[in-house]
Design brief:
Low-confidence stretches: 36-73
Strand content: 5-15%
Structural class: alpha/beta
Radius of gyration: 30 Å
Strand order of the largest sheet: 5-4-3-6-7
Helix content: 40-55%
Mean pLDDT: 82
Oligomer: single chain
Length: about 500
Amino acid sequence: MTELEQAKHRIVQLEEQLAKVMLQLEWFKKRFLGTGKSERQDAMQLQLQLEELKQTTEATLQEEEISYERRKARRKDPRVLPAERFGNVPERETIEIIPEEVKADPESFKRIGEEETFEIDIDPPKLFKRRIVRPKFVRLFEPQAAPLVAAAPRRVIDGSYASAGLIAWVVVSKYVDHLPLYRQEKMLSRYQVSIPRQRMCDWIGKAAELLEVIYWRIREGLVSGGYLQADETPVQFVDPDQKKGKTSKGNFWFLSRPEDCVFVHWDQSRGKLVANELLKGFSGVLQTDGYGGYNDFKSGNSKVERVACLAHCRRKFAEALGAEPVRARFVLRLIGHLYHLENSWDEAGFTDAAQRAHLRKRDFPGILSLLKRSLVRILEGKTRPTSKLGQACQYMLGQWDDWVKVLDHGQVQLDNNLVENAIRPSAVGKKNWLFVGAPDAGQRSAVMYTLILSCQRFGIDPLQYLRDVLTKLPGMTNQSDLTPLLPNHWKPA
């Protein structure tokens, strides 16, 4: 190899390294200075229309001259007046302000109307004591008989002063409002109450043990269905086997499907054995990202069919916009047109699975054909396989056969965003409480997140739900029907 050839080869290597560095810099700028990454479909993706789709030729990609439709102007939401915004707030008192002149001589004035406004006030949380009295009785004509007294009410923790309402408030403050227990301890001290954080931690543990019977019923209901979405997220935990002050990485595993509960499982591993145990007994369509931990379960079960997630493919092209804006945006527009069709069918009320599958088989093939050809041409062109765009194309083509199965399954979503959205509260919580205190504490959090996320899925107030369920569960037996206590069946008293 001559010196000139060596120099050219070195220049190519340096250009590739520079491209990688620039992409990493762009990612850090977006991650730490921008709005962060997200898998939501933005307004541009949902509103852009694809004009003259069938007339687009392969020469368009080669020349990299693609015309873009201008974004439609978003209609501004109508302004909500304060009277409407606070219409459901209960009215506690009415203050009538009389002019001083009228107070001094009321007989000289006649009331002809009034000017009315309002203000919103707040009472901070208040602890109160509930006195429970159980009178003792003896029979008048049997003085030797034992006194008669009513049984003590069953509680979450027998002998404890913590009511179901107080425990529910601690749980919701931690897992919904993301307040670590030490912050709750400080907040309560402002109300002249001292409750150690360790005591509150014990309450959460006891409540989780009591709620596990509902927790496992939720899993049974999900696994017995024919469609599941699955995902997982890492969580740091204090590992007793590690050096003091060090943490290890565990995982929350999420199972869900549209219009059903959310199930969260905790495990220290992210291996395929966890997926096999978590999905044991399931048969039907399993929708996941490209993580290979589910492949062993699928390959060992002929009754399971995996469908890929379109949002994970889309995200990789969104990350490539900075380096390859023309080609990456073209692919995003094709993906966006698929979402636009789905949204139009939702608005038209085409929700039946068979009907949705028919519509997809009718309208998707032309877009998918162009999309696949575009991915192949991008990889065959000047795009480096190691670039962001090259990796995005390889990832989507690798998931292609599993993703196009949505044509046959109308009940399946295009993406895993519903279960991804369920992960977000735990991600926000991690930024506040940083890590799980012990390996077994991860399971407590999984139980609480399962019930809270399921409540939020059905528009239920988690505090009201947990207060009611923790009041009823201690007095129930193995023969009691738990169905009314499941979040998808629960009704407020």
